[in-house]
Amino acid sequence: MRQKIILIHGYNKKSKDMKVLKKNLEAKGYEGILVDLPLTFKEIEHSTSILESIISKVIKDIKEDEKIHLVGHSTGGLIIRHLLTTTKYLDKIGKCVLIATPNNGSELADIAGSTLKIATKILKTLKSLQSENVKSLKLKDDHGIEIAAIAGNKQNLFLGRFLTGENDGRVRINSVKFDGLKDFISLPYGHKDIHYQFKTAELIDSFLKNGKFDIL
């Protein structure tokens, strides 16, 4: 039986943005499950509750000893971490991989909050990405679930010019890293294309199988 992976998209995106990664992971022998979350006008907590509801349905069709892996791009990774902090289905979660996730908050969201406050009042997901609001989620790292992160270091987007330090055009590498990671790697891709790369799928496969990123 193929292992199941729930793929969580990022801010202001839909499930179709994860279709290429789904295809690539299915080529590696997994079953990808796409979800649509309201990651534009709702706070992160709202999407987490929806994801938990989805998981409650998926686990009805798996064996007692089977677990579900989670992979999230950008904000989707924060949804995963918040879920791990709050869920009652922790024993059904396998390994998790976060791709270009602003684990320490988004510097661009901080800039938007200080210069365009009306934007963060309307775009509540963007407000959730501000550094102080990510901290307020009190994300736990002692849940026993192995997590790895993949960052991009190709600054190929206009907004990346406003960021300090190495970044993928949207998120700083230093924001992707946090102490609770089992493994970490950076790839020469930008924020909008890193999850479209077959190399990314290969690294996810490596971590899910071996608990580390094997450099291929």
Describe the protein's topology.
Elements: E1 4-8, H1 19-27, E2 31-34, H2 44-58, E3 68-73, H3 75-86, E4 93-99, H4 107-115, H5 117-122, H6 124-128, H7 131-136, E5 147-152, H8 173-176, E6 183-187, H9 198-210
Parallel strand pairs: 1-2, 1-3, 3-4, 4-5, 5-6
Strand content: 15-25%
Element-by-element helix/strand order = EHEHEHEHHHHEHEH
CA(first)-CA(last) distance: 26 Å
Care to count the β-strands? 6
Low-pLDDT parts are none
Keywords: Hydrolase
GO molecular function, one term: hydrolase activity
InterPro entries: AB_hydrolase_1, AB_hydrolase_fold
Pfam family, one: Abhydrolase_1
List keywords for this structure.
single chain; 216 residues
Q: Could you characterize what this model shows?
A:
By secondary structure, this protein is an alpha/beta fold. The protein has a single domain, classed as 3-Layer(aba) Sandwich (Rossmann fold). The chain has nine helices and six strands. It has helices at residues 19-27, 44-58, 75-86, 107-115, 117-122, 124-128, 131-136, 173-176, 198-210; strands at residues 4-8, 31-34, 68-73, 93-99, 147-152, 183-187. It has a six-stranded parallel sheet, sandwiched between helices. Helix 1 links the parallel strand 1 and strand 2. It is globular. The model has no long low-confidence stretch (mean pLDDT 94). Keywords: Hydrolase. InterPro entries: AB_hydrolase_1 (IPR000073), AB_hydrolase_fold (IPR029058).
